[in-house]
Amino acid sequence: MSAFFQDMRGRGLGDPLLVVCDGAAGIIKAIETCFPRSERQRCLAHRMRNLAAKVPEDRWPEFKARATAAYQAPSRAIARDLAGLVKDYEAELPSAVACFMDDFEAAIAHLRMPITHRRAIRTTNLLERLFVEERRRLKIISNAFGEKPVLKLMFGAMIRAAERWRAIRITDFERRQMTAVRQELDQEYEARNDLDKKAAAKELRQNLSSSSRT
C-alpha cells in the first residue's frame, strides 16, 4: 500500500487534509508514513458495524445513540466529553467499549472540518460506491481483454462519481476554515518532528555516554 501511495505522490498528489480508511493496520501505517501532514479519519460505517456485532440487540439502540452522539459531536472537545457516556458500559460491555475507544481520535478527525462536509468525509462510502459500480459493470463482461479496457471503464466510472461529488459545495468561509486546518496540521507535524529529533539526540548522547564508560 505504501508503494501505491508513493506512486500517487510521484504523480503530483500532495498532502490531503484528510485521508479516510478502515481499520486495516497496513493501510493505517501506509497513510501515516506517506501522508504525515494529513489527518486520518477512521471510517465510521465500519466502526458502527463492528460495535453492533459486540452489543446485544436489546442494548444496541441506547449504545448506538451514545456512540453516535460522540462521533458526530459539534467539536472534538465535546466528542471527548461524550465518550464518557459510552465508557459507562465498560463493566457490562467491555469489548464494545474497547472497540469504541480504539483509535478514537481518528474516529473524530472529521470534526476538524467544515460542518457541511462531515457527513461525506466520515466514511469510505464514496469510494466503496465506486467499487460497487465497477463490479456491477465487470460482472456482465465475460472478458475485459486486458488492463487498458478495465482502466478505461474505471476512469469512466470515476467521472460519473465525480459528478455526484460536486454536490458538495465549498464556500469562501469554508475555504478559510480548511486553510486554517492546513496550517494547524503543518504546525503539528513540525512539532512532532522536533520532538522526534530531540528524542533521537537524547538517545544518541546516552549511547555515547554508555560507550565511553565501557
Automatic annotation (TrEMBL):
Species for this entry: Mesorhizobium prunaredense
Any one GO BP annotation for this protein: DNA transposition
Record-given protein name: Mutator family transposase
Pfam families, per the entry: Transposase_mut
Purpose of the protein: Required for the transposition of the insertion element.
UniProt KW keywords: DNA recombination, DNA-binding, Transposable element, Transposition
UniProt family annotation: Belongs to the transposase mutator family.
Signal peptide: none
GO molecular function: DNA binding; transposase activity
